[in-house]
Amino acid sequence: MNIRAMKSLRLLALFMCLAALASGCAARSGKNVLFQAATIDSLAAGGLDGGVDIRELSRRGDTGLGTVDGLDGEMVAANGVFYRVASDGSVNVIDPATRSPFAMVVFFSADRTVPVPGGASLAEATEALDASLPTKNLYYAVRLTGTFASLKVRSVPGQSRPYPPLAKALAEQSVFELENVTGTMVGFRCPKNVGGLNVPGWHLHFISDPDASGRRVGGHVLAGRAGTVTAEVADLRQVEMVFPKLGDFDATPQAGEAQPIKGEAVGHD
Predict the structure, then answer these.
(1) Smallest Cα–Cα separation from 98: which of 48, 52, 130?
(2) Residue 103 contacts residue 65 (beta carbons within 8 Å)
(3) Is the per-residue pLDDT at 1 higher than 90?
(4) What's the pTM value of the predicted model, to 2 decimals?
(5) 33-37 and 238-242 beta bridge pairing
(6) Fewer CB under 10 Å: which end of the chain, C or N?
(7) Do 266 and 188 contact (CB within 8 A), yes or no?
(8) Alpha-carbon gap, residue 129 to 126, rounded angstroms
(9) Cis before 101 (ω within 30)
(10) Could you give the CA distance from residue 264 to residue 221 in angstroms, rounded to a whole number?
(11) DSSP E strand boundaries for 73-211
(12) Strands 218-236, 112-115: parallel, antiparallel or unpaired by DSSP?
């Protein structure tokens, strides 16, 4: 290939990239690249306006968690489907145009499978996961599939302006007790050095398989006990983060001004 042809190809490639940007086409994240929308500090401070839509999140991952505009329920992404668990326990597939004020997603590809003993509590399960990690300085994603002997999950009702801090909104949470439920638990482990970006430890959400009537249940996991469960862990050495242009993100308090969140993560360092 001569030099002129090479230059022409480079110009064509540059033109295609610019055209994609101009048309609003978003990039697609690679496998095991964590994509996070906003920070936990902004959510804790009451930054509850959605800034990134589900359509964009689906280009960034097939597995993950978060919430939706106005904190109106818990978001669970499993096998490429984004679910919303409402405060009344109902579950629906989220409209792609719905926005999220905070989310973490990844195209999940397991690096290891971790044995979780039957009957293990949530704390015991996360201890087993921790023991399998090559280092505690990375982010990790986890996917647990199978039957859970019991689960305690929650969801939160939608909030109205002026938005309260997250801790106050969580006081209105609905808690559901589940028994012998089959489904998928997804989540992330954040290292201690994340500062105000996230909460150190494991953060887990659950979505059940549909029952005979097609009904699902789920939510943010507070406690539980394993039945027959397969746990897969992915090492996340690359993190992409977006700070929303839309909504109230820019007006939320700076790090250290937000009311701290308690009980939002489990795990041990």
Answers:
(1) 52
(2) yes
(3) no
(4) 0.87
(5) parallel
(6) N
(7) no
(8) 5
(9) no
(10) 9
(11) 74-78, 81-85, 91-93, 99-100, 103-106, 112-115, 139-155, 174-190, 201-208
(12) antiparallel
> What CA–CA distance (Å, rounded) separates 260 from 155?
19
* Predicted local confidence at residue 5, as pLDDT: 45
Residue of 194, 193, 201, 191 lying closest to 221 (CA atoms): 201
Percent of the residues in the chain that have a pLDDT greater than 70, as a whole number: 84
Of the listed ranges 5-14, 115-124, 130-139, 153-162, the one predicted with least confidence:
5-14
**What's the one-letter identity of residue 5?**
A
What is the domain partition of the chain in residue ranges?
33-251
**Which residue, among 199, 208, 161, 216, has the nearest Cα to 181 in the 3D structure?**
208
* Interatomic CA distance for residues 97 and 100, integer angstroms: 10
Rounded CA gap, 90 and 192, in Å? 34
Terminal C-alpha separation, the chain? 56
May I ask the CATH class of domain 33-251?
alpha beta
Give per-residue pLDDT as tens, 20-41. 333 344 579 999 999 999 999 9
The pLDDT tens digits for 86-109 are 999 999 999 999 999 999 999 999
The secondary structure of 189-201, three-state, reads EECHHHCCCCCCE
What are the tens digits of pLDDT across the range 215-236? 999 999 999 999 999 999 999 9
Report CA 108 to chain centroid distance, whole Å: 12
